[in-house]
Design a protein that fits this description.
The protein is an alpha+beta fold. The chain has 6 helices and 3 strands. The protein has helices at about 20-25, 70-80, 130-145, 160-170, 170-180, 180-199; strands spanning about 95-105, 115-120, 150-155. Strands 1-2-3 form a 3-stranded mixed sheet. Strand 1 (about 95-105) and strand 2 form a beta hairpin. Helix 3 (about 130-145) runs parallel beside helix 4 (about 160-170).
């Protein structure tokens, strides 16, 4: 891992990444007063708009079955994962993209949901594609309720050994064995560090 395979990846600006978080912050921007210290005092220091609807409490909306999880929420969960080779996120490298996330019921009327995430390696011969896919899978399995069946795959035509990598990522026994490897678990922990602060 000391030799960087793609020393010059394409990097997307953080403001160009799809995020529901930015929409939420822009809706509260109108309550920030303009004044002498408005550029130095953060907007969070001001009182919220008394006419806006109050935020829901934890007890009101804690049931995961009531509130559906959409593709944007999945993207927000996985885009802050760090690339194992670069000090950048998978979202900024376009390894994960909002259009490549799909959510559908396992069968019509089923409570079980299949979540498919297609990842796009930065180069077609990326040796860390399996590790990146494993990091995405681990993040989703830790964050989502058990009714989700997570399927992480390499996007067709983006990797030279996509079929082999997809077989590895889809094999539960191989994934479980990989998670017993201390070195690999260390790499995954490092990749997922950015996710803790993004929540």
């Amino acid at each position: 891992m000391s030799e960087i395979l793609n020393a010059n990846p394409t990097i997307r600006n953080a403001s160009d990444l799809p995020s529901r978080r930015r929409e939420d912050s822009s809706s509260s921007a109108h309550i920030t007063p303009l004044g002498l210290f408005s550029s130095t005092v953060p907007a969070s220091a001001y009182l919220p708009d008394p006419f806006s609807s109050p935020p829901r409490s934890e007890s009101e909306g804690s049931d995961e079955e009531d509130e559906p999880i959409d593709e944007q929420e999945i993207y927000d969960l996985i885009s802050p994962i760090s690339d194992p080779e670069h000090p950048l996120t998978l979202g900024s490298l376009s390894v994960v993209n909002l259009p490549d996330i799909s959510i559908r019921p396992l069968t019509p009327g089923s409570q079980l949901t299949v979540l498919t995430v297609l990842i796009t390696p930065t180069i077609t011969h990326c040796s860390l594609a399996t590790v990146i896919g494993l990091g995405v899978r681990v993040r989703l399995e830790q964050a989502l309720p058990p009714r989700f069946r997570v399927d992480v795959r390499i996007k067709e035509g983006t990797h030279s050994t996509a079929e082999q990598v997809n077989r590895q990522l889809g094999d539960k026994e191989r994934v479980a064995a990989a998670l017993e490897n201390g070195t690999l678990v260390g790499v995954l922990r490092k990749m997922l560090e950015g996710c803790e602060s993004a929540v």
